[in-house]
Amino acid sequence: xxxxxxxxxxxxxxxxxxxxxxxxxxxxxxxxxxxxxxxxxxxxxxxxxxxxxxxxxxxxxxxxxxxxxxxxxxxxxxxxxxxxxxxxxxxxxxxxxxxxxxxxxxxxxxxxxxxxxxxxxxxxxxxxxxxxxxxxxxxxxxxxxxxxxxxxxxxxxxxxxxxxxxxxxxxxxxxxxxxxxxxxxxxxxxxxxxxxxxxxxxxxxxxxxxxxxxxxxxxxxxxxxxxxxxxxxxxxxxxxxxxxxxxxxxxxxxxxxxxxxxxxxxxxxxxxxxxxxxxxxxxxxxxxxxxxxxxxxxxxxxxxxxxxxxxxxxxxxxxxxxxxxxxxxxxxxxxxxxxxxxxxxxxxxxxxxxxxxxxxxxxxxxxxxxxxxxxxxxxxxxxxxxx
Length: 387
Description:
It is a single chain. Strands 4-3-5-2-1-6-10-11-9 form a 9-stranded mixed beta sheet, with helices on both faces. It has a two-stranded antiparallel ribbon with strand order 7-8. It has helices at 2-10, 16-52, 70-75, 81-101, 111-121, 125-150, 163-167, 176-190, 218-242, 264-272, 290-300, 334-340, 347-355, 370-375; strands at 156-161, 195-200, 247-251, 260-261, 276-280, 305-310, 315-316, 328-329, 331-333, 360-364, 382-385. It is built from 14 helices and 11 strands. It is globular, with a radius of gyration of 34 Å. By secondary structure, the protein is of the alpha/beta class. The chain has 2 domains: 2-150, no CATH class; 156-385, 3-Layer(aba) Sandwich (Carbamate kinase), CATH 3.40.1160.
């Protein structure tokens, strides 16, 4: 009788308790479906992220970190478009299915009408947020990959420039135009946030082991060569500061009026403050070349690599100027350089780099933009490493 009274009171509608129970069950089922769909959405996004990084699609789901290997991210950048588009499509499909599942049952909506209702509901703040979050994630992934692609390969470098490079083929002295060209290229690289130290030679003025010094005492000749490197360092400093780059010259030979004395911690502090540091005076000791000084200074300041600027494209089996069929090495080990007697750097410098696993990149300074290409990780010149 009570049930009939309730039916009579509410017409053909269901009793309030029963209607509430059905509504509660439907909402619970809808919430469960929504959680399942959200979990599936996160899984799809995670798998797509893993694919873009060159890993197995399930690595990230099982807790593996796929963002460690930036070279893999760079090599997989071209494959980014399809996985991310799959994420976008999957997210929209999941949100569409979730919205339709929340619609009143028993309707006869056609797909187009259901889509219209979905788009109308998408204007709601809570549903719009569910669409924005995947978009933010995708945008973050794209920005991360683009930044990793544009990130320099080296944070701190030591550039070895010979004195002959500053003479620009005239054989003696400093070619002002060429020095300013080198300074301009260094300023561009410095603007990337790379810390640059330079060791400059003095062969354009005096070389202690050259023919001109054969009748001199070796120690005196080497000291004259050290003074020549100070002249070149001051010329390079002037050109760099005309490019609005703060530069400090640090000499292994004390001459306080023109250069700072070399103090390791002060040199590192200059680099951290964004100044270019030019090391002059070699090691301050005779019988050691500026190549050895470059290796020594690079290890003292904890440089990531030595970049040796030359007039040829890399390391060859023979002198490419004299031997036309000489072949270039893309990569070569320290031991091979020593075994073959290749005149890349002197044996002492190579041995120091080998003991401390410091890579050496040999490249052509006469091709503008090569310094920028090397620091960005492009395959330029020859690389000397452990092999």
